[in-house]
Specification:
alpha/beta; TIM Barrel; two-stranded antiparallel ribbon; 17% strand; globular
Amino acid sequence: MIHYEGPLFRPPSEASSLILQVTIGCSYNDCTFCGMYRHKRFRVRPVEELREEIRWARDQLGEGVRKVFLADGDALVAKAALLEQVLAELNAAFPDLQRVSVYASPQSLQVRTVEEMARLREAGLTQYYLGIESGHDTVLERLKKGVDADEMIRVGRKAGEAGVKLSTMVLLGAGGRELSEEHARESARVVNAIQPRFVSTLVMTPVEDTPLMEEAERGEVDELTPVELAAELRAFVGDLELEGSIFRSNHASNYLTLGGSLPKDKPALVAALDEVLAHPEHARFVPDWLRGL
């Protein structure tokens, strides 16, 4: 059977995917806002264990599995040879497999060459989830992302050069009130430079057992109001110049749920946000008790 270690995390779009824990924890695990892997010691699992779990999943679920998500935090950092073995096992077990995806930290993208990523894409690893969080260097430093904006652009473009679909995330509110607009516009600049297939926003929220929560308890974190976050989102979306991307704010942390294809739906998204800012009393903000945090 499949032996999951600790809590599992996956993007909203992987709700129906088979989750295979290729690595335990996150090899970087230093971002101030993330508490997902604080209590896990990073390691790469032996391919023999993964092979057994894939065979068990095939026996239990049949050959009709179409999507697989490779957990935990940045399974892409595992050796390319191991990932190729895992992908071969998945393809053999599930002939209808359409997509295998993975979280990709900036650090794992630094490790992987374009050639390795292209080879893995041909083997079936076709989509990465990259937390950009911000395009503002000061904010990235505060969040301890380990890279600046220029490096984020460089590693993000590597995935594109390899033909991999990239799904990127930006943290609304990460710059506080002081840097709100700069954070939004610089984040749009980085996203524009990368041209990912998917762009989504989350709201930065302090969670237990993180440095961000400790900062919040000391009164050092500005938690923006829903209206302030809408203004930040308006600045971000307004500056996006994308050639063919899907935008969504469907993560549980968001106060506003929006979505569309860019550039086609940009005018409608901007108009919707302008309406919220002009008449916030009529806005359909998700209440805190429903945000699932």
